[in-house]
Design a protein that fits this description.
Elements lengths: L2 H31 L4 H10 L4 H12 L3 H11 L2 H8 L11 H6 L3 H7 L10 H29 L9 H17 L4 H17 L5 H22 L1
Helix pairs in contact: 1-2, 1-8, 1-9, 2-8, 3-4, 10-11
Length: about 230
């Protein structure tokens, strides 16, 4: 690994790092408001590191949900990561000993960075993937601990603060939209998601939407390859 790889990784990851720091603080404040401390917030971000699922986990803990309920809920909320992982199989073949951590650290926003890396020399990609993944998680963990400490020192209402995660998703999509001239995949995903939302409702649309998006993007990619 050299300075060029570190510079490119830092430049690519900075927007997500800033966002994770702020949203992590929001999570830490919510954890503190539920009667847990900053160390619990940090531990959840180290060992769970699942973004929206961490907010859901707090609701499951508060409601006294069973382990089975928690497991099923986690699978449903994070099912999209199956599709993320499938699309990264070829890219992560070169990562060697880094692979287990990279699989674990593949959050939504990190995925948006590693699936479209900058131009790198052969052999440098694995270090780019590692640096981006580690820096993103480090900011999420740091933000969670700071938020827990801040929530203990300055108690205030946390109602609506978890919307910050939705705002981050919107900002990532906007950045991807502005950085490329090819908008068909984004429009395809949006259209199929809205269709499934109308057909299945807000509580059931995620799985069929992900399946249709995967099929739609596969057909779109195949069509582009045939034209090329």
């Amino acid at each position: 690994m050299n300075k060029n790889v570190f510079k490119k990784a830092l430049t690519a990851a900075l927007p997500v790092m800033y966002s994770y720091l702020i949203i992590g603080m929001g999570f830490g404040m919510v954890v503190q408001s539920r009667g847990f401390g900053a160390l619990w917030a940090g531990a959840m971000s180290v060992f769970i590191y699942a973004g929206s699922m961490q907010f859901v986990a707090l609701e499951l803990i508060d409601s006294g949900a069973s382990l089975l309920t928690a497991a099923i809920t986690t699978v449903m909320v994070n099912l999209r990561h199956v599709f993320y992982g499938l699309s990264m199989v070829d890219k992560y073949k070169i990562t060697g000993a880094f692979k287990p951590y990279l699989i674990y650290a593949l959050s939504d926003e990190t995925y948006s960075l590693v699936c479209n890396p900058p131009q790198l020399l052969q052999g440098e990609q694995r270090y780019f993937y590692l640096l981006v993944s580690a820096m993103d998680q480090a900011c999420w963990v740091l933000g969670s601990i700071l938020g827990g400490l801040l929530g203990a020192a300055l108690p205030f209402s946390t109602q609506g603060i978890d919307f910050a995660l939705t705002a981050l998703f919107v900002s990532v999509v906007a950045e991807q939209w502005l950085s490329t001239k090819e908008h068909t995949p984004a429009l395809l995903g949006l259209g199929l998601s809205l269709l499934c939302l109308l057909l299945f409702g807000a509580d059931q649309f995620l799985l069929p939407a992900m399946v249709l998006i995967l099929l739609g993007l596969s057909l779109y990619r195949r069509g582009k390859g045939a034209k090329a």
